[in-house]
Every structure is written in C-alpha cells, then in structure tokens.
Design a protein that fits this description.
The protein is α+β, with helices and mostly antiparallel strands. It folds into two domains: 25-183 and 239-329, Bira Bifunctional Protein, Domain 2 (BirA Bifunctional Protein, domain 2, 2-Layer Sandwich), CATH 3.30.930; 341-433, Rossmann fold, CATH 3.40.50. Helix content is 37%, strand content 21%. An eight-stranded mixed beta sheet has the order 1-5-6-11-10-9-7-8. A five-stranded mixed beta sheet has the order 13-12-14-15-16, with helices on both faces. The relative contact order is 0.11. It binds adenosine monophosphate (AMP).
Length: 434
C-alpha cells in the first residue's frame, strides 16, 4: 500500500437529516401498539383505509392550506421535476385525500365516506422538542353527507378513545368554533380594527397578515404578540346563529359520551381551510410542553377550493412521534409482542447444511427461530443466544444427523436432552408455552 493511500482520511459518516430520524426495532412496541389501536378503532367506526402519494402538485396545498399558512409559506418541501412540474412533499394529508375523493368520484358512494390514514408527512420546521421535519400522522376524515355536529363529535371521540387506549390519561381537549362565510367576515373586520391599534408592536408576519388574514394573528407564537391576543375580540360572541347552534350541539354530543373539553376562543389553527369546529388535544402535566398530540376541524369549503362541489367535511390527525414521546415521559410501556424464540445452532459443516433446512421446517410449523449459523464454533453461536436473551437452544451435530435427532438445551438451567426430529416441533411448542 503506498503512503498516499495509507494516509487517506476515513470518509465522514453519513447521518440522518436534521429533524428526520430512524425507527429502530427497540421502538417497535410503541409503533405497533399505536398503529394497531388506531386501525382497530378505524375498523370499529367503519373507516376505510386510504393512502395517497407522498408528492402532490404544490398548488394543491397553496390553494387549500393557504399561501400564507406557516405550513405552505415556510415549511413545505417543494421541488421542480425535470419535466418542469412543481411538486410538494405532503405537509399534511387532508388536501390529498380531498383530491382523491373528487378524482375517484367518491361522492357517488354511500355518504359520508369515512377514511383513515397513517403515513409520513414533511415540514421544514425548526427541529425542537416534539417538532420534526419528517413525522408520522394518523388521521380520520369524514367526507360528504350532512353538515351535522354529530360528525364533529365522532372525530373527537375517536381521538379521545385512541389516547385512552394508549393509556394517556386525562388529555386536555381544547375546542373552538371559527364560524363560517356568514359570520367570519364581520369578525375579521373587528379583529383588524382591534389589532390596528398595536401595529407597531406586532411581529413582521402579523403586520402582513393583519391585512390579508387577521385570524392568523390569534395563532402567532411570537412572544411580542402574546399580550394582544389576550384582549382580542372573542369570536364566540360573534358567531351567527347557525354556527352557534352547530357548536352547541357538538359540545352536547361530547358531554353525552363523557368527554370533557375546554372552550378556547383563541384556538384558530394554522390552516386557511377550516371553518366552524377546530380542536386540539394535549397531554396533561409537564408533557403539555411537547405541543398538541392531535388536532383537526371542519373544512366544508375545501372541496370547492380545488374544483369539487360544496361538500361537508372534517377530520383530525395525531402525531405518532409526539404520542411516543409522551408515553415514554409518562412511563407507559407497551407490552412487547415479539413471539417466543428458539435458537438453532450447529456443530460442523454437515450439520450447518442440515440446520439450514431444519430452520425452514420449524418456520413452516410456526416456530420463530433465531440463529448465528454463519459462525463456525458452537460456543460463539451460543454467545449470540445469550446476548439475545434466548432460553432454549436446538443443537445439531454430526451424531444427531445420523440418529435423526437434535439436542434441546435449556440455556438457563444448562440441562439438555436428545429429541427425535419427528417429535421436535411438538416438544419445542410445549416448552415455549411453558
Ligand atoms: P397539525 O395538522 O399541524 O395540527 O398536525 C397534527 C398533529 O401532527 C399535531 O397535533 C402533532 O401531533 C403532529 N405534528 C405537527 N407538526 C409536527 C412536527 N413538526 N413534528 C412532529 N409532530 C408534528
């Protein structure tokens, strides 16, 4: 080796992108518990699964979430394809699902359509506690049918049930109504009149949004804007009679099933397409810092924004990573669901070959087998069994091959016995059960 090659520096190791992370086998019990519970609720409430492409036309989000929403304005990952199309990695599911509802003529099916999803979303946010650039959302959407508060309550109830199923006790549900096309313009004007008095003290975004979308000011997180939120006019006092009745009915349905809530007149959520009910769920105690575990609302005008008919619709989404963080902080450990395993070892080249086919037999019989067959020494193989914490080993040597038998060794007790291959499946199953 020449000197030059010797001194060549080791290439720098790659790391996951900032705000993006790996899901490792150690996290699997959490993911499995959350997804299984979410899916089984979806089935119980008659939701069908939907999966939309990770990328959509960027205009889909500009038109719906709003050009000025943080999600679109600052956080959307967009790219220009070689063909010149501008695509976006989905920052949320709802617009894509509405696009699919229209594209596939789902309004011709029984209404409302209940749709469930789970998958990754992308937001180029500033990474911090509970805030990632790629994270996983679980969501439930109810599209079409009547504009009835019973559906608002249904979505909220499902999310409350999911958190209860995951043993996240006493979540805080904040809820509000942000009116509709009838009452909102009037409220917006009142908000503008109020905020104009403080224009010099507001952050840059708020000054700009005051003209175009004053509701957004209630969603601002900048410290300098907080004091003005407190005294801002209250939307609930300005709702039209229809919105008021809708909100009252939603709360009554929630009371009917024993879900407690806090009406929060400052809750508006960041996206343009919401109307009437908006809500968010938080963990109680210090875990509230992590941010909302889930949120959603009604979006009766979204379908029209993308060329569909006026369609009552609403939904809610939860962030899986935040749920896991809260479960971990609260010491909630889902039971590991991995099956009991047997360790298969060989002693010698011929036995190695036989062990390879024996493993297939065992697998077909539903036995979970782990091994280190590539290692030649029996001792080295059993060390792996020890590392994995496996109590039962199956050892195949030259002698056993001729006798059509295997050795079953209890690795804890250090005892072993010879068992005929024909009987080994029953014997392993008996021992693993014990
Ligand atoms: P949103 O539509 O923004 O309310 O998102 C729904 C849920 O997704 C939130 O309640 C969070 O649980 C989760 N979520 C939103 N943004 C992030 C993020 N940047 N990182 C992790 N989870 C997030």
């Amino acid at each position: 080796m020449d000197q030059k090659e010797k001194t060549k520096e080791k290439p720098e190791a790659f790391r996951a992108q900032k705000g993006m992370h790996d899901m490792l086998p150690a996290d699997e019990p959490y993911w499995e518990k959350i997804e299984t519970a979410a899916r089984s609720l979806a089935r119980a409430y008659n939701f069908g699964s939907i999966e939309t492409p990770i990328m959509e036309d960027a205009a889909l989000y500009n038109k719906t979430s709003g050009e000025e929403s943080d999600v679109v304005e600052k956080e959307m990952y967009t790219l220009r394809t070689k063909g010149g199309d501008v695509l976006a990695l989905r920052p949320e599911y709802t617009p894509g699902i509405c696009r699919a509802y229209i594209e596939h003529g789902m309004s011709r099916l029984a209404q409302p359509q209940r749709l469930f999803y789970v998958g990754p979303v992308f937001r180029h946010d500033r990474p911090q506690l509970g805030r990632y650039r790629q994270f996983t959302q679980i969501g439930y959407e109810i599209l079409g049918g009547q504009n009835d508060a019973i559906y608002d309550a249904e979505i909220i109830t499902i999310i409350a049930n999911l958190l209860a199923e995951l043993k996240i006790k006493n979540p805080i549900l904040k809820i509000n109504s942000i009116g509709d096309r009838v009452c909102r313009p009037n409220y917006k004007r009142q908000l503008q009149n109020y905020y104009r008095n403080y224009e010099k003290e507001l952050c840059e975004d708020c000054v700009r949004r005051l003209k175009t979308n004053p509701l957004k000011l209630l969603d601002c997180k900048q410290p300098q804007c907080q004091p003005f939120k407190e005294k801002a006019p209250n939307f609930l006092d300005k709702l039209c009679s229809v919105c008021k009745a809708h909100f009252r009915a939603t709360l009554e349905y929630l009371e009917e099933v024993g879900i407690s809530y806090e009406v929060d007149p400052r809750l508006v959520r960041g996206l343009d397409y919401y109307n009437r009910t908006v809500f968010e769920f938080f963990a109680d105690g210090k875990e509230e810092e992590i941010g909302a575990l889930g949120g959603g609302g009604r979006y009766d005008y979204l379908m029209e924004m993308i060329g569909g008919h006026a369609t009552p619709a609403l939904g809610g989404a939860l962030g899986v990573e935040r749920i896991i963080a809260v479960m971990q902080a609260k010491g909630i450990v889902p039971p590991a669901r991995s099956p009991k395993k047997v360790f298969l070892a060989h002693a010698g080249a011929l036995a190695k070959k036989n062990a390879f086919s024996l493993r297939e037999e065992l697998r077909k019989s539903g036995i979970c087998v782990t091994e280190a067959l590539a290692r030649e020494s029996l001792g080295a193989q059993l060390k792996v069994a020890d590392k994995e914490g496996i109590g039962l080993a199956l050892i195949l040597g030259q002698k056993e091959i001729y006798e059509h038998s295997v050795i079953l060794r209890d690795l804890g007790a250090g005892t072993q016995e010879s068992v005929l291959v024909a009987k080994v499946v029953d014997e392993i199953k008996k021992r693993l059960k014990a």
